[in-house]
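Support request, please re-run this one:
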Amino acid sequence: MEEKGEDTSFEAAMKRLEQIVEMLSEGNLTLDDSLKVFEEGMDLCRLCNKKLDEAEYKVEKLVEREEGELNIEEFEVEE
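Re-run finished. Output below.
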């Protein structure tokens, strides 16, 4: 199990989350291993949410009105 920190990219975290979901879905892990992997997944989920919040904040700051004031515009992510 790899240590995931703030320097982990969003894409790497999402890829690892996909692996964790697959591992848990297969049902081949012991209870202890399942709990460890689930905990890692929750940590990665929090990391991804934080990175998405940071990205949203940056996008909001970059969108400017003609007068130079910030214009916060909502955007939708296609799934």
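Residues 10-62 form one domain. The radius of gyration is 17 Å.
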